[in-house]
Amino acid sequence: MSQYDISRSINLKIGGMEIVIRRIGEGIKRLKRSDKELNSISKELFGELNLLIYAAISLSRVKDELIRIVLLDSFAIHARSLLDFLYAREYKIERYPTTVIAEDFFDKPEDWRTIRPIETQILKNVLNKVNTQIAHLKFERLLLEDREREIGFRQITKEITSVFKKFLDNVSESKLNKEDRDIVEENIAQGMNVLYATNT
Prior knowledge:
With about 200 residues, the chain is mainly α.
C-alpha cells in the first residue's frame, strides 16, 4: 500500500463550493471536473507554458546578469508548475488536492499515465534545483558548485514542450480553450526555432 494513501475523506470548502475527495484503493480519487471548468482553467495552463517559453527566449538574448537571475527565477517556477501538472506526484495531490493535473483532462486518468513520456533525469532534477536554489533558502546552497547551479533552460524547455505536445495530441478538444490552444501550439514551434537558432 502506498505511503501516501489516506484513510478518510477530505472535505474542503472554497468560497461557496464544497469539494469532497475520497480514497479508493491505493491513491486518491479526484473530483471529476466539467468540460466547462477544464476549458476555463486551460487558459491558465496555457499561460504557464507561454511564460516558460517567453522566459527561455529572453534568457537566450539577455546578457545583464541581474536580469538573467530574475528571468531564471521566473523560468524555474513555471517549469515546476508545468512538471507538477504533467507528472503529478501523489504526495502533492494529497497535500494540495485542488492543484490542476493532466489526469483531470482525461475521462480515464490512467490513460495519461500510460501515454505520457517517461520523465527524464533532466526533468526530475528541476524540482530539486527549484526547491534548493529558488523557492526555499537552504543551507544546501553552500555546497553547490557553479556548474551545479546551472539550469539548462533550453533543454528543459524542449523536453517540457515535447511532453506538453503529447498531452495536446491526446486530450479531447472540448476540454481546452481552442483559441488559446492555437496560440500555444504556435508559440511552441516559434520558441523552439528561436532557442535553437540563438547563440548563448
